[in-house]
Amino acid sequence: MTGGAPLGASFDPDRTSALRPAPGAGPGAPTGRPRFTAGRAWGRAAVVMAAFVVLLYLIESVDSIIDYCIDCTAGIAPREVDGLDGILFAPLLHGSWDHLIGNTLPVLVLGFLTLATGIGRGLAATAVIWIVAGLGTWLTGGTNTIHIGASSLVFGWLTYLICRGWFARRIGQIVLGVVVLVFYGSLLWGVLPGQDGISWQGHLFGAMGGLIAGWVLSSDERRHRRQLRTGTAAPPR
Q1: How far apart are CA 160 and CA 78, in angstroms?
Q2: Where is this region: Disordered (predicted)?
Q3: Which residues pair with 147 in a beta bridge?
C-alpha cells in the first residue's frame, strides 16, 4: 500500500469500512455525521433477522407440502460427498413445524443482538459460524444420519456474544455477554451427546464457530491493546 497511513490487515469489516475516507476528502477535511447511528444499526438488524425468519417459514411451508423431501436431499450427510452441499443449506431446514417454532425466538433474539453491533461484523460472524458448524458436523456426525436446523447458528451466536466482549475488552459488550449468558446459558448443555434426535455435533461446532468468530473479529482491538502496551499505537487522526 502506498500513500497515507498504513491501515494494516483487518478482519473487522465494519471498522475497515469506517476507516475509508469519503470521496474527495483530504487531510483536515470535515468528516460530517457518522455514517450509521445506533438506532439505524438496530433497525437494520431487526429487518435482516425478520427477513431471515420469514425465509425459514417459507422454506418449511414448501418442505411440508412436498413431504419434507428437501430435508432428505439438502441436509448434512456426514462424510458423504453428496452431503457436502448440506453445509450451505442445513441451517435453513427443519424437520417439523415444532422444530422451527422452537428455534424461532432464539434465532430472532441472538441473531438480532449479533447484527446490532454492526451488520458487516455480524454477517461475518454468522458466515464463520455457518461454515465451522457445517464442516464440523459433516466430519463427525453419525453415519447414515441427516443434520438440519438453525440451532447451529443459535449456539454460535450465543458463544460469540458471550466471548467477544472479553476478547475485545469492551465493557458494553461484556455486559451484553453476561446478560445473554444468564438468559440463554443453559442452552450450552446441548453441546453434549446423549439426546436422541438432537444434532449435538451441530451445537458443538456451532459454539466453536462462535468462539472462533469472536476471536477473529476482535483482532483490531487486541492489536491496538498490544500497541498501547508497547508504545507503538498510532496517534489519533
Answers
A1: 25
A2: 1-33
A3: 76
User: Which residues are within 8 A (CB) of 117 and not within 5 positions of it... i.e. 6 or more apart?
Assistant: 41, 173
pLDDT digits (tens, 9 = 90+) for 46-77: 999 999 999 999 999 999 999 888 988 999 99
Query: Which residues make beta-bridge pairs with 20?
Result: none
CATH C-level class of 38-222: mainly alpha
Within a 10 A sphere around the Cβ of 166, how many other Cβ atoms? Answer: 14
CB atoms < 10 A from the CB of 114, how many? 28
> pLDDT digits over 177-216, tens only?
999 999 999 999 999 997 888 999 999 999 999 999 999 9
Predicted TM-score (pTM) of this structure = 0.80
* DSSP assignment letter at 24: T
| Residue that the C-alpha cell 487522526 belongs to | 237
- Of 119 and 168, the structure prediction assigns the larger pLDDT to 119
Helices of type H across 141-217? 151-168, 171-184, 200-216
Alpha helix segments (H runs only) across the chain: 13-19, 38-65, 69-74, 86-89, 97-116, 119-140, 151-168, 171-184, 200-216, 219-230
Residue 225 above 70 pLDDT? no
Q: Where are the domains of the chain?
A: 38-222
